Amino acid sequence: MVNLIWLGMIVLSFIAAAATGRMDELTKAAFDGAQTGVTVCFGLISVLVFWMGLMRIAEDAGLLGKLAALLGPAVRRLFPDVPKDHPAIGYIMSNMSANLLGLGNAATPMGIKAMQELQKLNPDPKTATPAMCTLLAINTSSITLVPTTLIAIRMNFGSANPAEIVGTTIAATAIATGAALLADRWYRSRALRPPHRSDPPAGLPRTTRAGRSRRPAEEPLPPAAGGSGRPPHAEGG
Amino acid sequence: MYALVTTLSAWMIPAMIAFIPLYAAYRKVPVYETFVEGAKDGFGTAVGLIPHLVGMITAISMFRASGAMDLMLAAVKPLFERLGVPSEVVPLGLLRPITGAGSLAYTTDLIKTYGPDSMIGRIASTIQGSTDTTLYVLTVYFGAVGIRRTRYALKVGLFSDLVGFVAAIAVCMIVFG
């Protein structure tokens, strides 16, 4: 689906630019966009380097494990296939709390660390696991208690009550997060079910087209067919 | 509530920066060496994200500059007008999932033009605050660990953006309407 959206944006841009005679702008936009991408990454370097250093201290001191044990039960229900007290749960907790408090520049490094920990549990490193999809769902709907940037902007333009949107934002974000989690659950349960007989077996043109991954493509992930909730490669900690 | 949370936010990071090394030192962790060791990963992760972000932001930038986005918006605007929703906020629904900076700029512009306490200003603020930039989050989080097959993650993200957009409009029209 990412491939489709990416291609769609580029092709539609080309057609629209051709129709409206904005080819020069399109070329400029392409290279400006590329430059923005690099700039954004450079901006991320300082934040990532700093937080990953600090979080490594927290991990080595056993703080993340403590956090996971303390606040984990609720989060573990969202991530049934991550082993209990795995550092990933600690990072997920840190990521969610940072999001909640609106600490955007701390939330991203912790989310990335959580992804890297989840990747260690992943039997197929090129394919997202259900736990990764859940983490992403939580982050794309962004549970924030106080949208600080917005309040600052509203103050700036002379709002009589800059914080009046806090309530509506929490309501909307709760609905969006709820919808994301429900959709995630639905897809997750579908992904765990055995494949239908009518699905084309691996090796038919539809799947070989991918050609990048050497393993038989489109194979459902093995984890957690049942209650144990642990992927086969996950043990060791 | 608002004051409490903003105070908490202001204290949170300094408190963490002080508390984590202190606790680690108590647990006999060599704090500085550990910091440097962990920080090394940060650089590689950030640099590794460059191809992902360049690819995505280039496409988004082209999409906006070519006028393709305006055409799509023109197509859906009449629908919203029939529902009584101020059509000025419609572009946000499309901008929000694809570009954080772009949608923030658009929100700021709406607040400036129509006033922060207008219905448009309130709806725009709520939309901007209630969801995150799905394409960016997906690119960064999956890019950082080299996930190629994202499975249903994007569908879930875009679905929740849509729900959040509709919910923001509905909640604002009920609360402030």
TrEMBL record, chain A:
Residues in coiled coil: none
Keyword line: Membrane, Transmembrane, Transmembrane helix
Record has Cell wall biogenesis/degradation as a keyword: no
Domain Nucleoside transporter/FeoB GTPase Gate as annotated: residue spans: 42-150
UniProt entry tagged with the keyword Transmembrane: yes
InterPro entries attached to this UniProt entry: Gate_dom
Transmembrane segments: 34-54, 133-153, 165-183
Residues making up the signal peptide according to the UniProt record: none
Listed name of the protein: Spore maturation protein A
Gene name for this UniProt entry: txxe 2428-spmA
Automatic annotation (TrEMBL), chain B:
Gene: txxe 2429-spmB
This protein's name: Spore maturation protein B
Keyword Transmembrane listed: yes
Keyword line: Membrane, Transmembrane, Transmembrane helix
Source taxon at top rank: Bacteria
Location of the Nucleoside transporter/FeoB GTPase Gate domain: 47-147
Segments passing through the bilayer: 7-26, 46-63, 156-176
Record Pfam families: Gate
InterPro entries according to UniProt: Gate_dom (IPR011642), SpmB (IPR052549)
